[in-house]
Amino acid sequence: MKHPTREQLVAFLYEDCDRAEKSETAQHLDTCAECRNQLQTWRATATTLNKYQVAPTVSLWQRTGVKAFRRSWLPLSAAAAILLVGGITLGSTWQSRANSNQSQVIAELRQRIESSEQENAKTKKLLADLSDAVAENRAKDHEALVAVAQEVQATRKDVETVAVLTEAGFKNAQNQLVRLANYTPDSQ
Question: To 10 degrees, the CA torsion angle through 151, 154, 159, 160?
Answer without folding.
Answer: 140
